Amino acid sequence: MKKKPIISYVAIAAILMLTLGAAYLYKKQSEKIQNEDTYKVADENPDEIVDGIHVRTGLVAAEGLQEVITNCTTCHSSKLIVQNRMGKEQWNATIRWMQETQGLWDLGENQQVIVDYLTTNYPTFKKGRRAALTDIEWYTLDTK
Ligand code: HEC
């Protein structure tokens, strides 16, 4: 039998170790994702509210929250709501658009409740730019 050079054994060992290492890291990572608090909270208490925020959806806990959860979080994430800031007209127009093109149902009397909730808790930003910074600790730049 022809003797294989030692280098090929080393190479095989190295490949084996890399594969095992990658598998181990992958497993650890997926365990970590499963253990994230949000999942735990959602499983244990879907209605938990912390600091005025409904934990599972990230929506402000206020009058109309339940109507919003029921009617507005089945098709898409509540993030889509949280990241939008609109006035009454715009919210009504967005709802109409979803009704006409995306299959959103007639909200009936809940529309008023929902739009009130949205304009109260997610109003348009009043400031056109960020507010001036306060509490700044200035330091002297040493140019020497
Ligand atoms: C029948 C499904 C459905 C329901 C229920 C629904 N939406 Fe939507 N909505 C959509 C789809 C589809 C989009 C487009 C998503 C995209 O662009 O990725 C959308 C987009 C949006 C947007 C983004 C609009 C934009 O201009 O970018 C907002 C805000 C929104 N929905 C809020 C709501 C609110 C508030 C409710 C509750 C009244 C609601 N949605 C209920 C289907 C729905």
Automatic annotation (TrEMBL):
SUPFAM superfamilies associated with the record: Cytochrome c (SSF46626)
Single Gene Ontology MF annotation: heme binding
Keyword NAD (UniProt): no
Parts of the chain that traverse the membrane: 6-26
Keyword Transmembrane helix found: yes
UniProt keyword terms in alphabetical order: Membrane, Transmembrane, Transmembrane helix
Protein's name in the database: Monoheme cytochrome C
Taxonomic source organism: Maribacter aurantiacus
Lineage: Bacteria, Pseudomonadati, Bacteroidota, Flavobacteriia, Flavobacteriales
